[in-house]
Amino acid sequence: MSAFNWFYQFIDPEYTLLILSIALLVGSLLIFRRFRGWPTAVQLIGSSAYFLKHLAWSLVIATAPYTDTHHEPMFPFLVHRQGDSYSQADWLYVLDPLSACFLIGFVWFSLRLSRGDLTNRSSQPLPREKIST
Asked: DSSP E strands: which ranges in 1-125?
């Protein structure tokens, strides 16, 4: 039995993505507090959207038994009834492109950080070795 199968018998994969999104949000928040700037702000916006998307779907999954019993969604602002099936609310479609901001901000931040580190290294004089005679 692989490690993922063992893990998924205790936690639903959708909740695993929720835990991952919480970790990304906390990490983005810590990076934003340490290095304030546009790249980290874009990264924070993207991770917040990713978290909201998975939080919404976790609420839909958690309330699915209620929806099946009462034929009415518990959170109508998250899902719409269309005949015999349900679809996500229109505002949730905005979170998908916004969650791409995390990747854009992360790459931007990484490039700025590595370029700044390389610039700082190249502007410092090389250490001179002692010449032993």
From this structure: 79-82, 85-88
Please check whether residue 5 lies inside any domain of the structure. Answer: no
**Packed helices 95-123 and 13-34: angle between N→C axes, nearest 10 degrees:** 40
- State pLDDT tens for residues 75-121: 777 776 666 666 677 777 888 889 999 999 999 998 988 877 545 55
Considering only CA atoms, which of 119, 100, 99 is closest in space to residue 111?
119
The number of distinct structural domains making up the chain is 1
Residue 128 belongs to some domain of the structure: no
Whose CA is closest to 51, among 24, 30, 70?
24
> What does pTM read for this prediction?
0.71
**In a domain? residue 2:** no
CB 49 within 8 A of CB 98: yes
